[in-house]
Amino acid sequence: MKRVFSFTVSLIVLFTLALSTVLFSACEEQKPEKIEWITAEYVADPVSVDPNYGQFVADGDKDISIGVLADIHVMSETQAVDMTCSDYKSWEAHGQKMLGLSESILKTAVDRIITESDFDVVLVSGDNADDGGYLSHVAVASELKRLENAGIKVFTIPGNHDINNNSYTYASGTQRLTRSTSEVEFASIYADFGYNGEDVVEYYKNEGTEAAATD
Fold first, then answer.
1. Which helix (H) or strand (E) holds 156?
2. What is d(CA 66, CA 71) in angstroms, rounded to the nearest whole number?
3. Do 67 and 156 belong to one domain?
4. Which pLDDT tens digit goes with each residue over 9-38?
């Protein structure tokens, strides 16, 4: 009985190994020899915007090159003040954002976009300031203005760190709360980057809210 059982187990093991070999070989045959990056060119539809809504006109025969800056989390020197104190070093070590270099990194990125890219537009997709500090937002806006002065359109939106957050300074050598940024202040600081109405074609309308208001 034991001999029959051992023989049966051996057959099961051999069958499993054979099946695994076949499946592995099939997977190997389907494995691509190289990765082919999927790329696509996007051509703007012909648009002529009413001058009352702005001056942007897209040429249907012209490609638009778009760059993106995301989650830059700048902690400006004007906000932090003392980056040598123990409280600041402890806060910086808490994350992986290199806050002490964040402003310099942004300046370098802007320099390279201006000198090395062919971007028509740069989108800044939020979390511009690490903790929503007012002075850090002002520093970011100053760098974005350099892009616009170089002929590159810039648009930004707030992230979850940017508005009504707990913002800190280390001017006294210890961590303490400092001026944060409200929704209105964010729109004011970044007015030239999508909030002054010059580049607005149409505002989003919440039809459900409008219907309720008219009932």
1. strand 153-156
2. 17
3. yes
4. 454 544 554 545 544 444 444 444 443 433
